[in-house]
Design a protein that fits this description.
By secondary structure, this protein is of the alpha/beta class. It contains 18 helices and 30 strands. Bound molecules: 5'-O-[(S)-butoxy(hydroxy)phosphoryl]adenosine. 5'-O-[(S)-butoxy(hydroxy)phosphoryl]adenosine binds next to helix 10, strand 20, strand 24 and strand 25.
Length: 653
């Protein structure tokens, strides 16, 4: 394995020096190993103890785990009752009302504001009382389509306070994508803002919501937070201003105590087929996963200032901007801008200004900033940092080394954290004070997560080291998704029926001679562009919505900056005349969102298909990546003569 050639970096000695850093929770690999083995030997004991230690229960649970992966009936802490917002806010507000919960770093530098736990409790309560007055009840779904403002966190927590299910839609999605998510979840309310700001640009959130709601009957009200104050369309009585409504309501709202297994939220994510899945997370298990991983993976300590640069519209934002940090009573930075606005020094200015101790970002941002050069990093005081994290896709060793040396000055642990929307919280990761790091490897499983490598064909477990296969998890863990909203079949078929008795991640993996895990990427038709998860089938469906497109085949192509980029092959209906590819790009922007737009579209006469009509994307991938001499067996193609024609059109474009 070529990976063996890569360097091993020991835990930086500074982290273990009590005169320089707080003592890490887990401060040696032996401690990690011992705790890990205990957690796997008796998971019920481990999770039961941690659930009592890390969460506040209004009614204690009796059964730690019920059900299993075989039948897809997993339930954790069954009889227990609790409230997520009480756990994130109230219990800290009582002890420490003046501690800062959220620091908002606004798009324009110099405009940051802080919210204490005491203030957060008031805001969350006022909004919860508002939602109650609008007639929303436990079990109802609320869509949140918000820019990166603290009020987005308030919206999450107010829903949780009443047992409402939040369904956050990333504010980069188009109105059509928003509409289909609102309809699928039968959301009754949309919480949004007049506009958003990002990188100096305006995002017209309210206008997008208005278009999404045309012909959408489930939504009764739209609650609009005023972010920019610009004039936006407003139609009473459907639309309500956040500031006007909240003022009418009391700053305390008793939490609705819910069952452990009541849903906390839905989050749509892309899979192998066209329609996005509403992944369902339940309350207690999800909260426990968020709380425990935040504590150990980022080695969270009492006075830390933690900053995750993701968007609240993705699972990373849910678990590691909001729930994880707040469950631990921490201070979390909510960053509205981009890594390069107004200059590629922005992250480092923010770290220095707020004295951030843990920074969590994505490989695509790291690669981008590395490309701008070290000068943008130098001159900023980054000495507050102890842990720097990466998430979303495999990080290439060059980018890892840059992050470690230039940003971390070899004095920080790099945590390459592997997980998914469906896992709820981190499953493979180094621990800052314990794990020797290998650049590009997410290293070892987190406590209580029993991973295995299966041979993809036979489904047999590959024991020992130096193996390659697909990554599965062998036992239920608390923060695993319980179902796909209104489609348990799809849940079973995607995750639990592929290899019976295992949770299937969809990722290829290697376990090297030292037992380190190396994620190789998806083995299904899911691709990753700048950390955004896209489905080739979903983009294909968008393309064929265009009146002149007959067929479309989408592939992910390696990209030095964004990980992968979207390339699309389209055939046109007969007698279309001239078709502008820009129109096709626009079609994808309109149907899904700009972030899914193809980088390249090839108009071709035919697509490579098997005799049964299945498109062979493998052939297209090879042609685009310049490996047309390694196409493999193309004799199964219905018409092998199209291959040279395709090669020609790719080379010409
Ligand atoms: C997919 C999940 C939950 C984090 C944000 C993405 C890929 C995620 C890593 C990593 C290699 C990674 C996998 C996974 N992925 N983290 N550290 N190393 N690959 O969540 O949108 O649900 O995507 O992202 O392919 O299956 P997501």
């Amino acid at each position: 394995m070529s990976d063996a050639a890569h360097a091993v970096h020991q835990v930086p000695s500074r982290l273990l020096d009590a005169s320089k850093c707080p003592k890490p929770h887990i401060d040696s690999f032996e401690t990690y190993k011992k705790l890990y083995e205990e957690s796997i030997k008796d998971p019920q004991k481990f999770w039961g103890e941690k659930a009592k230690e890390l969460l506040h229960w209004h009614k204690p649970f009796e059964t730690v785990l019920y059900g299993g992966l075989e039948h897809g009936d997993v339930a954790w802490f069954r009889e227990g009752e609790l409230n997520a917002s009480y756990n994130c806010v109230d219990r800290h507000a009582y002890v420490n009302p003046d501690k800062v919960a959220i620091i908002h770093e606004a798009d324009e530098p110099g405009n940051s504001r802080s919210i204490t736990y005491g203030e957060l409790l008031h805001q969350v309560s006022r909004l919860a009382n508002t939602l109650k007055s609008l007639g929303l009840k436990k079990g109802d779904t609320v869509a949140i389509y918000m820019p990166m403002v603290p009020e987005a966190a308030v919206a999450f927590l107010a829903c949780a306070r009443l047992g409402l299910i939040h369904s956050v839609v990333f504010a980069g999605f188009s109105s059509e994508a928003l509409r289909s998510r609102i309809i699928d979840a039968s959301s009754k309310l949309v919480i949004t803002a007049d506009e958003g700001r990002r990188g100096g640009k305006t995002i017209h959130t309210k206008k997008i919501v208005d278009v999404a709601l045309e012909g959408c009957s489930t939504v009764e009200h739209v609650l609009v937070f005023r972010r920019t104050g610009s004039e936006v369309p407003f139609s009473a009585p459907r639309d309500l201003w956040w500031h006007e409504e909240l003022e009418k309501h009391r700053p305390y709202c008793p939490p609705e105590i819910v069952n452990s297994e009541d849903p906390l939220f839905l989050l749509y994510t892309s899979g192998s087929t066209g329609k996005p899945k509403g992944v369902v997370h339940t309350t207690a298990g999800y909260l426990l996963g968020a709380a425990i991983t935040f504590k150990y993976v980022f080695d969270y300590q009492e006075n830390d200032i933690y900053g995750c640069m993701a968007d609240i519209g993705w699972i990373t934002g849910h678990t590691y901007i909001i729930y994880g940090p707040l469950l631990n009573g921490g201070t979390t930075v909510l960053f509205e801008s981009t890594p390069v606005y107004p200059s590629p020094s922005r992250y480092w200015q923010v770290v220095a200004q707020h004295k951030i101790t843990q920074l969590y970002t994505a490989p695509t941002a790291i690669r981008l900033l590395r490309r701008y050069g070290d000068d943008y990093v130098k001159g900023h005081d980054l000495s507050s940092l102890r842990v720097i994290g990466s998430v979303g896709e495999p990080i290439n060793p060059e980018a890892w080394e840059w992050y470690y040396e230039v940003v971390g000055r070899k004095e920080c642990s790099v945590v390459d954290t592997y997980w998914q929307t469906e896992t709820g919280s981190i499953v493979l990761t180094p621990l800052p004070g314990a794990t020797a790091m290998k650049p590009g490897s997410a290293t070892f499983p987190f406590f209580g997560i029993e991973t295995a490598v299966l041979d993809a064909e036979s489904g047999k477990e590959l024991e020992g080291n130096d193996v390659e296969g697909v990554l599965v998890i062998k036992k239920p863990w608390p923060s695993m998704a319980r179902t796909v909203y209104a489609n348990h079949h799809r849940y079973m078929d995607t995750y639990l029926n592929v290899y019976k008795g295992y949770y299937f991640t969809g990722d290829g993996v290697g376990r090297d001679h030292d037992g380190y895990y190396w994620i190789r990427g998806r083995v299904d038709d899911v691709i990753g562009v700048s950390g955004h998860r896209l489905s080739t089938a979903e983009i294909e469906s968008a393309l064929i919505l265009h009146s002149s497109v007959a067929e479309a085949a989408v592939i992910g192509v390696h990209d030095d900056l964004t990980g992968q980029s979207v390339h699309a092959f389209c055939t046109l209906k007969p007698n279309q005349g001239e078709t502008d590819v820009n129109e096709l790009v626009l079609q994808v922007r309109k149907t899904i969102g700009s972030f899914a737009a193809p980088k390249k579209i090839y108009l071709v006469n035919d697509l490579p298909k098997t005799r049964s009509g299945k498109i062979m994307r493998r052939v297209l991938r090879k042609i685009v990546s310049g490996e047309s001499d390694q196409l493999g067996d193309v004799s199964t193609l219905a018409d092998p003569s199209i291959v040279p024609v395709l090669i020609d059109s790719v080379q010409k474009s």
